Amino acid sequence: MSDMPNCPNCESDLTYHDGQNFVCPMCGHEWAEAEEAASEDAVDQAPVVRDANGNVLQDGDTVIVIKDLKLSASQTIKQGTKVTGIRLVEEPVNGHDIDCRIKGIGAVMLKSEFVKK
């Protein structure tokens, strides 16, 4: 068995080592050993989302809003509102990294800096 990595471009297992690079004969892709290690580290490290107090948040947690959040001219999420079953967003939109449903309001996205566990 070879301990050569599969090609990140075409997933072929026919790769070989050529000096400082790995080469795939199937698609011609070349990559450095450092890129292989970096891509493995990136997969292992998921972004950590923390609340206003620094506690790590996870999917399904229950949080409390720590300040009034104005949604529109007529809708406001009041301080102390309990939000259950949050979902963390992999790619935050304008800093909003929590997706949730709030009774009486519906689906909203929140910033983790305005909630506590």
Automatic annotation (TrEMBL):
Gene3D superfamilies the UniProt entry points to: 2.20.25.10, SH3 Domains
InterPro entries assigned: YjdM, YjdM_C, YjdM_N
Pfam families to which the protein is assigned, alphabetical: YjdM, Zn_Ribbon_YjdM
Stated family: Belongs to the YjdM family.
NCBIfam families with a match to the protein in the record: phnA (TIGR00686)
Name of the molecule in the record: Alkylphosphonate utilization protein
Organism, scientific name: Aerococcus urinaehominis
Lineage of the species this protein comes from: Bacteria, Bacillati, Bacillota, Bacilli, Lactobacillales
